[in-house]
Design goal:
The chain is mostly beta strands. It is built from two helices and 23 strands. The strands form four sheets. Strands 1, 3, 4, 6, 9, 12, 13 and 15 form an eight-stranded antiparallel beta sheet that branches. β19 and β20 form a beta hairpin. The structure holds magnesium ion (MG).
């Protein structure tokens, strides 16, 4: 009571210690957080050309695809096929803007290393200019886990530390899904990020809490559906090469076509199909089961048969058909099974005897 009174007299409000106000429960940049396990990757980044549908952002020749914060020529230098951060020159931003992407980046921290912690080889890859996958020399260089190489900065430490020594080319392969807002600016879906460092999974579809930041956790604010990819100048001459991006489709996948409707077929026609059919060692059986008219395929696989006519049947969940190819005394004598370029002509080998 005395403490409270003293605090009140001093104009202070006594409050109990609060739980960390983050989704993880950890406070941002907490050095007490466990360090991700070390994993030695299979090797340094190999300079593989981009796929045919990629937008090439840097191929070693020039930085025309990039600008500075004022929209003017990027202040980074190109040296030896790499673009290098010039300390004090500021971030560089792609002139083209992107939303959902697959992004490939290769980077190398300065060698020999200088300084320590956040001061050693610090840069960053920013999706939509706002969501940082941290670039840092995290090879034998301790720092807070949500700020080491491969961290979704301030939010998610990497799953493992897959860092290679400074001076070595390392790769980031990132899949980023942008946040979605409704017309009124209400968040519908947060941003998500998946990332590999040197081929090792470091972020597994993590749900971003909002734009990344130092010290301050920023909330989502509805904005443009696309933004630039940015690389950070954090005062260290980090190098980049072989940067390319594949914008990802944002719409829903194409709808499957509507199947032809099942037609009513007299039960006598259904009954006439029941039997065993074979082509060499390939045996198929038509029977009635609780699921309905059923085709049992080799190795116990089975599919419901859906009549499309008296002589043609679709399989319930596979794009294949079964057609009556020949009839003897009102019963199918041969069937044709078609699936893609696979065709089986099947001969009836057993079943109810032919009718009179
Ligand atoms: Mg950074």
């Amino acid at each position: 009571m005395r403490t409270v009174l003293l605090a009140a007299a001093a104009g202070l409000l006594a409050v109990p210690p609060a739980a960390a106000q983050t989704p993880s429960g950890w406070r941002a940049h907490d050095l007490a957080r466990p360090r991700p396990p070390l994993v030695t990757p299979g090797g340094a980044a190999v300079l593989v050309p981009p796929p045919s549908d990629a937008v090439v952002l840097f191929d070693g020749a020039g930085v025309d695809a990039w600008r500075n914060a004022d929209g003017e020529a990027a202040g980074w230098v190109v040296r030896g096929g790499a673009m290098e951060a010039v300390p004090g020159s500021g971030f560089v931003f792609t002139r083209q803007e992107f939303g959902d992407v697959q992004l490939h980046v290769e980077w190398a921290a300065p060698a020999p290393p200088r300084d320590s912690g956040q001061g050693r080889g610090n840069s960053g890859v920013f999706l939509m200019g706002s969501y940082e996958l941290q670039v840092l020399d995290s090879y034998h260089n301790d720092t807070y886990p949500d700020g080491q190489a491969g961290a979704a900065y301030g939010q998610y430490p990497p799953l493992v530390n897959a860092s290679l020594p400074p001076g070595t080319w390392q790769s980031y392969d990132i899949v980023f899904r942008r946040p979605r807002f409704d017309a009124g600016g209400v968040l519908l879906e947060p941003a998500r990020m998946t990332a590999f460092q040197n081929g090792v999974l470091i972020q597994d579809n993590v749900v971003m809490w909002g734009p990344t930041n130092w010290l301050q956790a920023n909330p989502y604010v509805a904005g443009a559906p696309r933004g630039p990819i940015a690389l950070q100048d954090h005062g260290n001459p980090v190098r980049y090469r072989n940067i390319w991006v594949r914008p990802l489709p944002e719409g829903p996948p194409p709808l499957a076509p509507t199947l032809p409707a099942a037609v009513g077929v007299p039960s006598a026609v259904i009954d006439s199909l029941i039997g065993t059919y074979a082509n060499g060692g390939t045996v198929m059986v038509i029977s009635t089961t609780p699921a309905g008219l059923t085709l049992t395929l080799p190795e116990g696989r089975w599919q419901r048969l859906i009549p499309l006519s008296r002589t043609e049947f679709a399989l319930g969940s596979t794009a294949a058909t079964l057609t009556v190819a020949a009839t003897t005394r009102g019963r199918p004598a041969r069937l044709t099974f078609r699936m893609g370029d696979t065709v089986f002509d099947l001969v009836r080998v057993a079943g109810p005897s032919a009718g009179p």
